[in-house]
Specification:
The chain is mainly alpha-helical and 187 residues long. It has one domain (3-157). Helix content is 79%, strand content 0%. The protein contains eight helices and no strands. It has helices spanning 3-9, 11-23, 28-35, 43-60, 65-81, 86-110, 114-160, 174-186. Helix 2 (11-23) runs antiparallel to helix 6 (86-110) and helix 5 (65-81) packs across helix 7 (114-160). The longest helix is centred in the last third of the chain and has 47 residues, at 114-160. The termini are far apart. The mean pLDDT is 85.
Length: 187
Amino acid sequence: MSLKNLLTDNKSSIVKAWCDLTLKSYPEESQGFFKKKDQFGNPVGHSLCEGIESTYDALLEDADTDVLSKALDGIIRIRAIQEFSPSQAISFLFGLKQVIRDGLGSKINKDGFSEEWAVFETKIDGLALLGFDIYSKCRQQIYDIRVESVKRRTSRLLTKAGLVYEIPEGQSDQSDLQENIANINNS
């Protein structure tokens, strides 16, 4: 028997414990709601637990970065939107180590899986780094959306106040622009 077989045989208990541990990072009043895995009544809880299971499967199958990214994306997006700090957003990934140690630690040590466990722990660490990259991209997208929203609102306010001047096509030359500004000031 290998570590992979042990982890595969105990998949359901590991995934459940990992999901429960992840949900503990939320406020107590939200945890009970998120545990309901109804896709329509609780899409966040459903996405978190589905993403955790997909991520676990991808880890066991030695999936490439694209597959791991896809599995992690939904979870990390949710946590980025919820204003978790970077460390809080990806800390659930390290929780997998704890879940496996708690559930299978004695068996891993007793059956001589120490070397395989070290390799698997390294994969989890790499997964956390990938999660951080995804989190950073998501946060950048959120900031970009906010900046664009502010620009649109500011533009609308300036237009309503009559403080916006459209430059006619063909007048991109600096001297033409200065002439047009002078004409506006003289009006």
